[in-house]
Each structure stands twice: as C-alpha cells, then as structure tokens.
Amino acid sequence: MNTLLKKPVLTLIALSVLLTGSAVAQNRDQERDFRKGPPSAETILARLSENLDLSNEQSAAMLVVLQEQAAERTAMHEQTMQLLGPEICSQQAATEEAILAILAPDQADEFLQMKEARQVKAAQRDRGRGRNHPDCSEYESDG
To answer: What pLDDT band is residue 39 in, cutting at 50, 70 and 90?
Structure first.
C-alpha cells in the first residue's frame, strides 16, 4: 500500500513545483510590461536598492546615473525616429494600401474606422508620455 501511494504523491509534488514556478514567472512578467516602455529610473533604483542593500549615498549616485542613462536613451530614440520615421511611415502606408485593396468597400470602411479608433486610444494612452512611434501625419501627402 505504501508503494501505491508513493507514485501519485510524488507526481502531485512534481506538478505543484512546476505550477508554482510558472506562477512566479508570470508575476515577474506582469511587473515588466514592455508595452509601457522601459521602467523608470526610480523603479530600477528601487529594485537595485532592495537586491543590493544600497546605502543612501549609493542610492543617490545610482539615481543620477540611471536618470542620465534614461535621458540619453530618450534622445537616441528621438534621433532614430527622425531618421527612420519616413521609412516606417512609408511601409505602414504601403501595408494599409495593400490591405485596403483586398477588402470589399464596406470592409475597408470598417477597417479605417478601426484604425481611427486605435489612433484615438493610443493618443489617450500616450498622453504625458513620449511617443514610441513616428508621427506619420508629417509625411502624408494629399495626393
């Protein structure tokens, strides 16, 4: 009887360990939602301070370094968007044109309405934050 219970109990323990590991991994992924952009310097500092037990002086110095890095990253992103913005927008326009050519007129109208709704939602979401994509209205032509 002892042998009969041993196998299911070991299987249950192994399954529990696997599920616990999966749950922990999912919680970490929820903390780092990459759609919201990189974590702030303060968030990074809090994590480092907790893990490394930083002194007040180390925390202050670390905050300066992290804020400078964030500013440099923002500047590099803006430069990238200026350089590649026209190409990105051209590709988006070509893709939209190809999609519209496939759709029936009523589907095309619905597609354009969906696009507009996404743009409104993105504008609301991006309020107060830097844009992560080029403003293609600068490159649109009337013809």
So the answer is: confident
Helix and strand counts by DSSP (H, E) for the chain = 4, 0
Report residue 19 CA to chain centroid gap: 26
Q: Which residue has the tokens 């180390």?
A: 58
pTM of the complete model beyond 0.70: no
Q: Whole-angstrom Cα distance, residue 11 to residue 93?
A: 54
Q: What is the distance between the alpha carbons of residues 128 and 21, in angstroms, rounded to a whole number? A: 36
Q: How far apart are CA 1 and CA 36, in angstroms?
A: 55
Phi, psi of 33 (to 5 degrees): -90, 105
**How far apart are the C-alpha atoms of 136 and 97, rounded to whole Å?**
15
**Residues 6 or more apart in contact with residue 73 via CB below 8 angstroms:** 38
Q: Write the pLDDT tens digit of every residue in 41-76.
A: 999 999 998 899 889 999 999 999 999 999 999 899
Quote the distance between the C-alpha of residue 93 and its chain's center. 23
